[in-house]
Amino acid sequence: MQGRKCVGLVFLGAALAGCHVERPPAPPEPVASTEPAVEGIPVGDQRSAMEAAADRAPATTVSSAAPTPSPAGGSGPALAPNAPDSYVVKRGDTLWGIAKVFLRDPWYWPEIWQVNPQIRNPHLIYPGDTLRLVYVDGKPRIVVQRSTERGGEVRVEPRVRSEPLGGAITTIPYETVAAFMSKPVVLSKEQLKTAPYVLTTRDLHVVMAEGDTVYARGFKQPTEVGVRYALVRVGDPLVDPDDDQVLGYNGVYTGSGRVVRVGDPVTLVMNDSTRETYPGDKLIPASEDVQLNFMPSPPKVRTDGSIILVSDGVSVIGQYQVVAINRGSRDGLAPGNVLAILSGGNVVRDTASKGYLQGVSHFGGAKVTLPEERSGTFMVFKTFDRLSYGLVMEATDIIQVGDRVANP
Q1: What predicted TM-score, i.e. pTM, was given to this entire model?
Q2: Segments of 8-129 assigned E as strands
Q3: Residue-wise over 63-97: b if at least 16 C-beta within 10 A, else e?
Q4: Cis peptide before 265 (omega within 30 of 0)
Q5: Domain count, the chain
Q6: What mean pLDDT is predicted for residues 264-269?
Q7: For 74-117, how does the pLDDT look when each residue is reduced to its tens digit (9 = 90+)?
Q8: Which residues of 258-268 are buried (b: 16+ CB within 10 A; e: fewer)?
Q9: What is the domain-level CATH number for residue 347?
Q10: What's the alpha-carbon Rg for the chain, to the nearest Å?
């Protein structure tokens, strides 16, 4: 019996040894490829670029080869501390948000954007495209790999939700400024003199809805059926604080209408109404020019201006609010230019030498001007001759009318 056990143990050992000998070798460790089709570490699957920038974990998203300091000399683009080696563009992303994922200062995006010769239109980025961080001559560059869902030549895995891909992403949130940009915002003195005006509304309504009727007069040129007009109330004058000159008048949009009958008066049917419309409000030809596909960049010239208006009429300005500054195309500004917002510079009295009155009385101490502090970031999206409208992209402190804007 014991002999049989020994024989069994021998056969069992041989079987185990045979299994060990015939086991296939372990696969080799994966090696990073330099082929352009290799995708790096994507950031999330459902988040936009701004959400990814806020939520990204450093341990899983930082490319080991990606240095973060600025180039020699302290100028130029510096990568964000947790810059990924690739990012899959999501629906709802903006170019500003994506640039902030890769860069500490998003306005340096044009300096790292690498134009791919095989891409038909390299300036447009679509949901599903993969942006890869590479290095050319030791400098960081971003290249785009088109998603095969859009017919791109390079196969990538988009890793987005299964849904139809939308249009190209815009630089700033479309829904925030598209309506604003398609409406007149600055009225000149000449427009005030020559623009037609609202005579009255049918049934004397002041708050109108789609389908309501408006009667207008004062057309210097004949109009035609089907022409669309924006109804605008003349708001506050836009005054340059540097020389007290009136740059124009703020146009407050109240609605839009389409001409359905010519004559005197002209009859319009309202397409939409956002607030009260009164006799005397102006009619301005409606514009459909909404261009948001520009790249963030610093101004090419030195800029020093002030915030002179906030579109919503509030006293404290926050993120994604539209403001006007007293610098425009004449001063070298263009859509996409980014400026720093500087607040402060208040004057206080130094009461430290007033003994027991210290902190009680504010009179008699020496006047001290406090330094300005950066409180936000502003991007121009529409320029006129002497003023520009833009969006507050970031607000780190209280921003008010009168705060200064300058090169970032």
Answers
A1: 0.66
A2: 86-88
A3: beebeeeeeeeeeebbbbebbbbbbbbbbbbbbbb
A4: yes
A5: 3
A6: 96
A7: 456 889 988 999 999 988 888 888 999 999 998 888 888 876 66
A8: ebeeeeebbbb
A9: 2.40.10
A10: 31
